[in-house]
Amino acid sequence: MSEGNSSDLATWFAASLEANKPNMSEVYLGDLPLWSDREAREVMAQLCEKHNVPVDVLTELVAIQRHSQDRSKALGIYDAFSEVLSRMD
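The structure corresponding to this sequence follows.
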């Protein structure tokens, strides 16, 4: 996958998340309090429900950000975000 192809990043991320749903959040998010602390997850889930944001959408957005955070340029991140957010419509 080329860093310059944002469509490839979005497609790869969607496929990776779908293929590895149980493990993907652990790999990218397990060290974050919102995912590692049971009470924090419950509050997050309540807030997501209150604001009509599926928890899996928030999880994917944070995973995409974490995947891109070490790059000098976050090429493709906006396309990946758009793809995930389009599922909320």
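The helical segments are 6-19, 21-29, 33-36, 38-50, 55-68, 77-86.
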